[in-house]
Amino acid sequence: MTKQIAIIGGGPAGLMAAEVLSAAGHAVTVYEAMPTFGRKFLLAGKSGLNITHSEDFSSFAARFGTACAHLRPALDAFTPDDVRAWAAGLGTETFVGTSGRVFPNVMKASPLLRAWLRRLEAQGVVLKTRHRWLGFAENGYRFETPEGPVIARPDAALLALGGASWPRLGSDAAWVPWLRDKGILVADLRPANCGFDVAWSEAFRERFAGEPLKSVSTTSEAGTFQGEFVISKHGIEGSLVYAHSAALRDRLLEKGHAALAVDLAPGRTTERLARDLGRQDAKASFSNRLRKGAGLEGVKAALLRELVPDANRMPPGELAQLIKALQIPVLRPRPIAEAISSAGGIAWSELDEHSMLKPLPGLFAAGEMLDWEAPTGGYLLTACLATGRAAARGIEAWLRHR
Length: 402
Ligand SMILES: Cc1cc2nc3c(=O)[nH]c(=O)nc-3n(C[C@H](O)[C@H](O)[C@H](O)COP(=O)(O)OP(=O)(O)OC[C@H]3O[C@@H](n4cnc5c(N)ncnc54)[C@H](O)[C@@H]3O)c2cc1C
Known about the structure:
There is one protein chain. This protein folds into two domains: 4-192 and 341-400, FAD/NAD(P)-binding domain; 196-333, no CATH class. Helix content is 37%, strand content 24%. It has helices at residues 12-23, 39-44, 57-62, 68-77, 80-89, 110-122, 175-181, 202-208, 239-255, 270-278, 286-294, 298-307, 316-324, 379-401, and strands at 4-8, 27-31, 52-53, 94-96, 101-104, 126-128, 132-137, 140-145, 148-152, 156-159, 186-192, 196-197, 212-220, 223-231, 235-237, 258-263, 326-330, 332-333, 341-346, 363-365. Helix 1 runs parallel beside helix 6 and helix 10 (270-278) crosses helix 13. It is elongated. Flavin-adenine dinucleotide (FAD) binds next to helix 1, helix 2, strand 7 and helix 14.
């Protein structure tokens, strides 16, 4: 029998659930607070929509860290290959980039989102924008709409409200206290894939904010990764920093201090650097010694001097070690509003095997609002799509057995 299902939140997780449930013949309404759907999805496409990753599946799943065990059934049922096939079914062919990341041929999200919304409408999904969920009503859900307050009393509902990054795109985490009031455990939302504040001197900030540090290697408890990052006016940012952000954030919380170690000359050994620096004329300027002996100039040389002002007095061996492991002390993560994603969310212990909130029968949850995090690389969207799908299957199963 056809059931009424409310999907609250029209991002990738909610739209995927709407697709599955409408295809199964249910009457689905998607309630979205913003004037249009999938704003964060569209923004993700601005810099090249990295929709999934092509690495082997067990490595892929391991990127979700401690949440891997909880996400695994959803990921098993909707793998990165499935993501690619699904996108192709909507007319968006994808390719594997040199890093193994998967992108649409057109790089953007807009053609995919347009085709997706068309498919949902064709399947009978009612798409309501400017419908903001305001919390619970007796046996229902309260919405603010252009026509005034509305209470929906569906047979089942899915929360797919996203995390807390970029709140101006719609996911503002207003739901956290409403669920906590119902006794649901929600881990604090914290910035993930974020930049960090660093106490730059005024002179360094003015001269180098916006400059990339290219071809460096960086190390934290997360591991060692090569690439580039950017000096910002507040500190450091960019994909190489994001790869360390969970480790740096958690260490700051635990110990009160953390540093990112940078190898400014990953192509040269410490021994070679020490030898080449030792060959430089002791009377030459420090800039010249760094340039000729270590190949360092511009922002790299300036960073070294900024962080270790008396580096010029170091003997070659010590200077070589510094160049190979320059510590950038980070003060705090940048605010969650600037982060790519958020960690924390609804605790897994609150969900049953159908993605239903155990204390609130008939209410399900999916996407970034669940307590997991992952690096950038297409992992975030894949998990949002997969958990949206899993929650839809959970809703079907629950409605069948009710
Ligand atoms: C700049 C940027 C770039 C990114 N790039 C990538 C990338 O390349 N690859 C990748 O995998 N991931 C990327 N991400 C992350 C990815 O976009 C998110 O993880 C994903 O969109 C989360 O999906 P979701 O459906 O859980 O939530 P969201 O996409 O946040 O959708 C939630 C929806 O719920 C709505 N909503 C919230 N509260 C209410 C309410 N009270 N009532 C009604 N509706 C409400 C919101 O308006 C929103 O539309 C990027 C994120 C950012 C910010």
